[in-house]
């Protein structure tokens, strides 16, 4: 049974930090490109960041570049998203996803973690 389980969503103040985790099971984790996506109310889901199977390639959306860091621990089958200098516009439900290649659509999705940035 394939599972992607996000954790760490919370309410934080603008300028604050938050770390999300996504624990994977049921598939060959290191063979997959992992990514984080987010969706705000009334908006389309957007790609936030992705990381290659062994962490050699990482990319970020312009809106989060310099503030967010994606990482993974293949021994723990977990991908992380460290979020710093949070802004109200970062408020969204954050999802992790797994795909076999950059050119393919995500094969597996997590259930989402809610992040609210507000004073």
Describe the structure.
The protein has 119 residues and is mostly beta strands. The chain has no helices and eleven strands. It has strands at 3-7, 11-12, 18-25, 33-39, 46-51, 58-60, 68-73, 78-83, 92-99, 108-109, 113-117. The N and C termini lie far apart (40 Å).
Q: Uncertain runs with pLDDT below 50, 5 residues or more?
A: none
- The N- and C-terminal alpha carbons lie at a distance of 40 Å
Number of strands: 11
Strand content: over 45%
Figure out the total of helices. 0
Bulk shape? globular
Main traits of this protein?
mainly beta; 7-stranded mixed β-sheet; 119 residues; 11 strands
Question: How is this structure best summarized?
Answer:
With 119 residues, the protein is mainly beta.
SSE inventory with pairings:
Layout: E1 3-7, E2 11-12, E3 18-25, E4 33-39, E5 46-51, E6 58-60, E7 68-73, E8 78-83, E9 92-99, E10 108-109, E11 113-117
Parallel strand pairs: 2-11
Antiparallel strand pairs: 1-3, 3-8, 4-5, 4-9, 5-6, 7-8, 9-10, 9-11
């Amino acid at each position: 049974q394939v599972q992607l389980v996000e954790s760490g969503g919370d309410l934080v103040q603008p300028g604050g930090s938050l770390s999300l985790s996504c624990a994977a099971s049921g598939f060959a984790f290191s063979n997959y490109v992992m990514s984080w996506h987010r969706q705000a109310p009334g908006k389309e889901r957007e790609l936030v960041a992705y990381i290659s199977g062994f962490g050699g390639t990482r990319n970020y959306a312009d809106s989060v570049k310099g503030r967010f860091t994606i990482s993974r621990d293949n021994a723990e089958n977990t991908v992380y998203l460290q979020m710093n200098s949070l802004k109200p516009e970062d408020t969204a439900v954050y999802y992790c996803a797994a795909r076999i290649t950059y050119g393919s659509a995500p094969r597996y999705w997590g259930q989402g973690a809610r992040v609210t940035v507000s004073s």
